[in-house]
Design goal:
The complex is a heterodimer of chains A (about 525) and B (about 230). With about 525 residues, chain A is an alpha+beta fold. Chain A contains 16 helices and 21 strands. Classes of the chains: A alpha+beta (about 525), B alpha+beta (about 230). The structure holds flavin-adenine dinucleotide.
């Protein structure tokens, strides 16, 4: 540490998605290109590969790319990105084969609230037999027809419907690296951290490396993935496991080809529930990324692998027997603290829950930006900022866990222990249980999401709650909603708008091809 | 309007004649693309603006001919008024087309189905050889294709220099406000804020008169309004 205690150099250890996102946010906000700014260095091992999964994002990622000064056209071209407009949940509600409705969408467009909140009227049946999503939004229909979210004439980062991306994770890390080093002034070192030198105060003084010697800094950001070299290894911060709430702690990931190169390109993530977990299925331009996320307490690794092959068989045929899935153990939970003294954990080192709603990149991105924007000027000011940071990030993770658990605990499935156990009330976090108790008697409102640090909001809950066929008792409330005619007109309008829109939007695959060929304009 | 472009051939097209393209009836084009070289001339009669091509999202320079979609206030049932007629019209019914034989070779083609084609006007062949008229038209096409390529590179330069702004143009037609969206202009303040070397480069390439003609032509939106008012009255 320098004698004046000023923060002048930040070292990020780890060059996965989290490391490069953190480096980019810090460098941009703290002006790393300016000699008077804060220097930002990212050090990563040339030998330990990044985890290389994490292909789904949420719409906030779009703002991040823009904020970092990245061209959407470049990002789409270089990260094999495609558009994601929803997550489509298959077989989450009913035992497979027992019910005509197999799937629901959690779309990214907010319900169309045009002076009139449609939700209570949908609950009271004013939309007939339309699903919740199709009643309140056009987007489900856009997705069902494999259409893209935007017109070629729209500028970068703007769409007709709200969207996020699917992307190739290793390509994203490489792309962010180029941007961070070439444009944002991040210094890049390839070396293995072999030891950590502690100061007398208990701070980290420097890291020792095998080929770049000793590297010191004023603040250290641990982005070393599940290995958590600094936050756990050096600072000894405890991990708080959450596997009693979210049971899935293994993944089997595998990339598979399309049956034909012009197969329609889905613009949603498919999340298909199986006996002991669920399969993600993400369409990039030239391949799919899939994986079974499961609870090893409810199935064996062998059985899980067999289940994944069965899932793939209808689309890839006998190649389902030839692919070799990679098994990834996952640490489910988060740190007791995320910022301890002069060490901050961002990324898998900080915490992780199964990738159901693409919360990984989201939380790492949000916390990296929060870190950059709150970076104190001196070491002396750091502990107070850290303590608030810890509170907020912990609040964020707790709410993420609530939201993921929501997808499970509302199931009506009874066909395996995994689903039975998920219905069990013991596993439901207190805050979520409280919310559900309220929502049994009235639809959720913005009042139920009171802080600025909510990661998921009213709209996200609405799609999942009513996609999962959650029941809100409207009978005592019926007299408060006297605009059923207006609501019916609204539902009709949305239906009409959806049909018109579907005539205007390009097929998703065609849209991506044109963007790659012509590029998008910035205005 | 059906379009049926076939390669020009003496054996097939020796009998036909072609009318003056100014008689072409293009009633339903609100905009027509321009090449950079014709912008100053077009700007004297009609607004010249930039729009995004719906298929590709790329900017293109266009003459604005009407205030509503499918409205061309400069052409009536008998053809074009006495105004500048965009070269894309003046090339009709000819077009350079890619041969679909795998070679991608460019050949001269003619739109057989065009109302300009018939037994009135200029002949294309005489005793199996090309008339002077046809040779002149072919040269026109050839230079148009070259100018189109230059146009694309200049528009790309405008994009790279970040000169465009989106503008919604409003005019009153007999007390009724008409709003035109999806229009892009070159922003004068962005132009003035260019670094000296960039500005000098535009000047050396002779692009400045084009830009000023475009900016000046925006006054012509009022002309569209009065043409429209006149038409409504008639
Ligand atoms: C199965 C699975 C699916 C996922 N799906 C999604 C998803 O769809 N959406 C989403 O948002 N997130 C998803 N995630 C989370 C996603 O993987 C992470 O968001 C992202 O990849 C961040 O990883 P990371 O950068 O923290 O760690 P890693 O990618 O593991 O990077 C660790 C870095 O630390 C370096 N390192 C380690 N030790 C040392 C050392 N001693 N010295 C020097 N360097 C070292 C390594 O070289 C590497 O660069 C998923 C995660 C899993 C497990």
């Amino acid at each position: 540490m320098r004698p004046d205690g000023h923060i002048r150099h930040i070292l990020i250890v780890g060059g996965g998605t989290a490391g490069w996102l953190a480096a980019s946010h810090l460098a941009r906000r703290l002006r790393a290109t300016d000699p008077e700014g804060v220097a930002v260095t990212l050090l990563e091992s040339p030998d330990i590969p990044i985890i290389g999964v994490g292909e789904g994002t949420v719409p906030a990622f779009r703002q991040t790319l823009k904020h970092l000064g990245i061209r959407e056209t470049d990002f789409i071209r270089e990260c094999d990105a495609t558009f994601k407009q929803s997550i489509r949940f298959v077989d989450w509600v009913h035992n497979p084969g027992s019910h005509p409705t197999r799937a629901y969408h959690h779309v990214f467009d907010y319900p169309a609230v045009d002076g009139l909140d449609p939700t209570p009227y949908w609950l009271m049946g004013a939309a007939g037999d339309k699903s919740y999503v199709d009643a309140v939004s056009v987007q489900g229909q856009v997705i069902d027809q494999h259409l893209g979210p935007k017109l070629m004439t729209q500028p970068e980062y703007e769409g007709i419907t709200n969207y996020a991306y699917h992307l190739d994770a290793p390509k994203l890390a490489a792309f962010l690296m180029r941007h961070a080093t070439e444009k944002l002034g991040v210094k890049h070192i390839l070396a293995n951290v072999t030891g950590v030198e502690m100061a007398e105060s208990g701070d980290i003084a420097a890291v020792e490396t095998d080929r770049a010697g000793r590297v010191d800094a004023d603040l250290f950001v641990d982005c070393t993935g599940f290995s958590a070299k600094l936050i756990e290894g050096a600072m000894g911060v405890r991990f708080v496991p959450k596997s009693d709430v979210l049971f899935c702690e293994h993944a089997l990931a595998v990339q598979v080809p399309y049956a034909s190169p012009d197969e329609p390109l889905p613009s949603c993530t498919h999340a298909t529930a199986l006996d002991a977990g669920w399969v993600w299925d993400i369409g990039l331009t030239d391949r799919r990324g899939t994986g079974y996320v499961y609870s090893s307490a409810h199935t064996s690794h062998e059985a899980a692998e067999a289940a994944l092959r069965e899932y793939l068989r209808p689309t890839i045929g006998k190649m389902a027997d030839e692919v070799t899935p990679r098994r990834i153990p996952m640490r489910i939970g988060m740190r007791e603290k995320f910022w301890q003294r002069n060490c901050v954990a961002i990324g898998l080192s900080q915490g992780f829950v199964e990738p159901l709603e693409a919360t990984g990149i989201l939380v790492y991105d949000v916390t990296a930006r929060m870190l950059a924007e709150q970076m104190p000027g001196t070491r002396a000011a750091m502990d107070a900022v850290a303590s608030r940071f810890n509170e907020r990030v912990r609040y964020g993770w707790d709410r993420v866990i609530d939201f993921i658990k929501l997808h499970y605990c509302l199931t009506k499935r009874t066909d395996s222990d995994f689903w039975q156990d998920n219905r069990c009330e013991d596993g439901i976090p207190e805050h979520l249980a409280e919310q559900l108790a309220v929502w049994r008697h009235q639809p959720p409102t913005a009042y139920d999401f009171a802080t600025r640090y909510e990661i998921f909001n009213l709209e996200n809950y609405l799609y999942v709650l009513y996609g999962m066929e959650f029941e809100t008792d409207m009978v005592p409330l019926a007299g408060r909603y006297g605009e059923a005619d207006a609501a019916r007109r609204l539902f009709d309008d949305i239906g009409r708008e959806a049909r018109e829109l579907c005539g205007e939007l390009l097929p998703h695959r065609e849209l991506i091809a044109r963007i790659k060929r012509y590029g998008l304009q910035t205005i | 309007m059906t379009i049926n472009i076939v390669p020009l051939q003496a054996t097939i097209h020796d009998k036909i004649k072609v009318k003056d393209p100014r008689s072409a009836v293009i009633l339903d084009s609100q905009i027509l693309p321009l090449v950079i070289q014709e912008i100053p001339a077009a700007a004297a009669d009609m607004p010249v603006v930039f729009v995004k091509n719906g298929e590709t999202g790329q900017f293109q320079a266009v003459a604005l001919l009407g205030l509503e979609s499918k409205e061309n206030l400069f052409a009536g049932p008998d053809g074009w008024a006495d105004v500048y007629v965009p070269r894309i019209v003046m090339n009709m019914p000819f077009k350079l087309v890619n041969l679909e034989d795998g070679t991608g070779r460019l050949v001269y083609g003619i739109d057989d189905a065009s109302p300009l084609v018939g037994d009135e006007g200029d002949a294309l062949y005489e005793n199996g050889t090309e008339t002077d008229y046809l040779q002149m038209r072919k040269q026109g096409l050839q230079s148009y294709v070259e100018q189109d390529m230059i146009t694309n590179s200049i528009i790309k330069l405008f994009v790279d220099l970040d000169l465009f702004v989106q503008k919604s143009l409003g005019v009153d037609v007999k007390g009724q406000r008409i709003q035109l969206d999806g229009i892009y202009l070159i922003d004068e303040s962005k132009l003035n804020a260019l670094a000296d070397d960039k500005f000098l480069d535009l000047r050396k390439r002779g692009i400045l008169p084009v830009i000023y003609a475009h900016l000046f032509s925006l006054q012509q939106v009022r002309r569209l309004a009065s043409l429209k008012a006149g038409r409504n009255a008639a």
